[in-house]
């Protein structure tokens, strides 16, 4: 059996090194953590995304006493954006999170289900989404969700 080597490159920088537009989107994600409804996990996640026409949409995790009925911040933002602004590609997605002690030092990464939903948007609009994962220690800059989901299942996979 041969081995297939899959490698990815992810950027890491301080928030001040990013463009003003990126810093602004991260700030929106940080603010969106305040809209989290997370009485069960006490983990507040905020997402802010930029659409192709420049519109910004935010989302925050929304929990439920019946745990699986809640939704992550990333999917809240993406589904809201696609519902209110149909036909608009997502160009950038920023994510921030806080626990009871405040903003996370290390960035958090989207869960598997959110990665799959972000992938669908990339595939739908045929353009990559830059993902900015914010932590107070620094920011991971990811050029496409494919770097977080190296083997992808998309609509084309069923043909
Ligand atoms: N959560 C998100 O909103 N996004 C992520 O990327 C990871 C997890 C939420 C789901 C749940 O409300 C809480 O964080 C704890 O898992």
Automatic annotation (TrEMBL):
Enzyme Commission number(s): 3.5.4.5
One GO MF term: cytidine deaminase activity
Entry cofactors: Zn(2+)
Domain (CMP/dCMP-type deaminase) ranges: 20-156
Keywords for the protein's UniProt record, in alphabetical order: Hydrolase, Metal-binding, Zinc
PROSITE patterns membership: CYT_DCMP_DEAMINASES_1 (PS00903), CYT_DCMP_DEAMINASES_2 (PS51747)
Keyword Metal-binding: yes
Gene3D superfamilies, per database record: Cytidine Deaminase, domain 2 (3.40.140.10)
Domain of life, per lineage: Bacteria
Catalytic activity: 2'-deoxycytidine + H2O + H(+) = 2'-deoxyuridine + NH4(+); cytidine + H2O + H(+) = uridine + NH4(+)
Keyword Metal-binding listed: yes
Family per similarity comment: Belongs to the cytidine and deoxycytidylate deaminase family.
Function field: This enzyme scavenges exogenous and endogenous cytidine and 2'-deoxycytidine for UMP synthesis.
Official protein name in the record: Cytidine deaminase
Gene transcribed to yield this protein: cdd
């Amino acid at each position: 059996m041969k081995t297939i080597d899959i490698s990815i490159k992810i950027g890491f920088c301080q928030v001040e090194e990013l463009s003003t537009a990126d810093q602004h989107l991260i700030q929106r994600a940080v603010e969106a953590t305040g809209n989290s409804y997370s009485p069960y996990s006490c983990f507040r996640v905020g997402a802010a995304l930029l659409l192709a026409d420049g519109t910004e949409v935010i989302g925050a995790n929304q929990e439920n006493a019946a745990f699986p009925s809640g939704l992550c911040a990333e999917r809240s933002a993406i589904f809201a954006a696609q519902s209110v602004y149909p036909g608009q590609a997502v160009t950038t997605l920023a994510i921030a999170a806080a626990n009871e002690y405040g903003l996370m030092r290390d960035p958090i990464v989207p869960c598997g289900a959110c990665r799959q939903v972000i992938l669908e948007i990339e595939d739908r609009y045929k353009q990559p989404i830059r993902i900015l994962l914010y932590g107070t220690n620094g920011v991971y800059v990811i050029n496409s969700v494919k770097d977080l989901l190296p083997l992808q299942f998309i609509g084309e996979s069923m043909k």
